[in-house]
Amino acid sequence: MSLQTFGRTKMTIIEKLSVEHGVFLKLLDYLEKLKGDRSFLDVTGLKHVIFVIANVVEKHAEHEEKFLFPKLRSYIGPELNRIQAVEFEHGEIRKILAVIKKNNDLRAVRLEAAKLITFLRDHIAKEESVLFPVAEQCLNPEHLQVPCKSGA
Ligand SMILES: [Fe+2]
Ligand SMILES: [Fe+2]
After folding, report:
1. Where are the domains of the chain?
2. Residue from 1, 15, 2, 30 nearest 144 by CA
3. What are phi and psi of 13, to 5 degrees?
């Protein structure tokens, strides 16, 4: 996230999404410790933590899909495959969560949680290093403003 955020009255959508990424990475660190703790045997508790994280990640993904990707798609034709790749990953993350939701076996939930952590970290890194810089280059400042009704 750009330090230029400070001293301004509005964040851009990219800055908002980047701040959220930072929070998700901290939450994933917590989840990684919890799922690796062999004395923690509460599968319901582990699933609860996963879905607290999943709920905020889902809102973030919907925001990207609704406000960022469509704008990007219309501006960066040749880079379309990059958007398709991250959209595909949103689907993969949702699939992992669906498996966790149906599962009550601690070992299986730990394994899926490990997949989720790896997948989400990789996804965030890809958006931060590839997609967001492209968005900042291609979209004009007006398109990057956080929408008024985003709840931000
Ligand atoms: Fe995403
Ligand atoms: Fe994201």
Report:
1. 11-139
2. 15
3. -60, -35
Q: Report domain 11-139's class.
A: mainly alpha
Q: pLDDT tens across 95-138, in order?
A: 999 999 999 999 999 999 999 999 999 999 999 998 999 888 88
Q: What are the structure tokens assigned to 149, written together? A: 């009704």
| Model pTM score | 0.87
Specify burial of residue 45 (Cβ count, 10 A radius: 0-12, 13-18, 19+).
exposed
Tokens of 11: 């964040």
Q: What is the pLDDT of residues 75-98, one digit of tens each?
A: 766 567 888 899 999 999 999 999
**Rounded to the nearest whole angstrom, what is the distance from the C-alpha of residue 3 to the centroid of ligand 2?**
19
Spatial distance between the Cα atoms of 143 and 152, rounded to a whole number of angstroms? 16
List the structure tokens of 89: 């990953």
Which protein residues have a CB closer than 5 Å to ligand 1 (ion)?
A: 64
Tell me which ligand sits closest to the C-alpha of residue 88: 1
Region for 40 from its dihedrals, namely left if φ exceeds 0, alpha if ψ lies in -120 to 50, beta otherwise: beta
- Distance of CA 102 from the midpoint of ligand 2 (Å): 25
